[in-house]
Specification:
The protein contains 8 helices and 3 strands; from the N terminus they run αααααβββααα. By secondary structure, it is mostly helical. Helix 3 crosses helix 7, helix 4 runs antiparallel to helix 6 and helix 4 packs parallel to helix 8. The protein is globular, with a radius of gyration of 22 Å. The termini are far apart.
């Protein structure tokens, strides 16, 4: 959308402003780099380090990030009443992507059922220091876990989204090929 707006702004004929003025906004090419996501061994190392961390919530945060691909802020705002274990969904109504039902894997649902038993209050990530009553940041604990797992410093909470999407794409492709074989036989 931004690219389209810049193209319009750079084309006086389209906007019928200052006709004849030769003006273009050059597009900057993004540097080519590999998307960073965690390989299975790295994800396992991250979870192991998170399980041994002093922050009681960082393991749950990593599990949700790796299994759902939800954004950091959306994960930290999960309320206990937004977890539907029977349908295996998290009701996400305060997210950048809008209101939706976020599916949970069986492994995540099993983990969260046990995790919420020890919680008291409305939040999945409660915080007594926060005005809202829930954690608003996980970067310090996450960086500590990344370091303990001996992973690269470019691993951020957002990379959990890339990891989940990469894994989901691979899974979807396997399902698609299985479906295609079944439909042609």
């Amino acid at each position: 959308m931004v690219s389209h707006l810049l193209s319009l702004a750079a084309n006086p004929e389209e906007l019928k402003l200052l006709p004849g003025l030769p003006f273009r906004v050059p597009r900057v090419k993004e540097p080519e780099s590999k998307p960073v996501y965690l390989r299975p061994t790295e994800a396992s190392a991250l979870l192991k380090a998170a399980a041994n961390d002093s922050n009681e919530h960082v393991f749950a945060f990593c599990m949700i990030g790796l299994h759902t691909g939800m954004r950091l802020s959306a994960v930290l705002r999960i309320r206990l009443d937004e977890l539907d274990f029977d349908r295996r969904v998290i009701w996400a109504d305060r997210d950048k992507a809008g209101e939706r039902q976020q599916p949970m894997t069986g492994e995540l649902a099993t983990f969260l059922r046990q995790y919420v038993e020890k919680l008291d209050g409305p939040w999945l990530f409660p915080s007594k220091r926060s005005e809202g009553g829930h954690a608003t940041n996980m970067h310090i604990a996450f960086n500590r876990v990344v370091s303990a797992a001996k992973l690269s410093r470019v691993i951020t909470p957002h990379k959990l989204r890339h990891t989940m999407a990469t894994n989901a794409a691979g899974t979807s492709l396997r399902w698609a090929s299985r479906w295609e074989r079944a439909s042609t036989s």
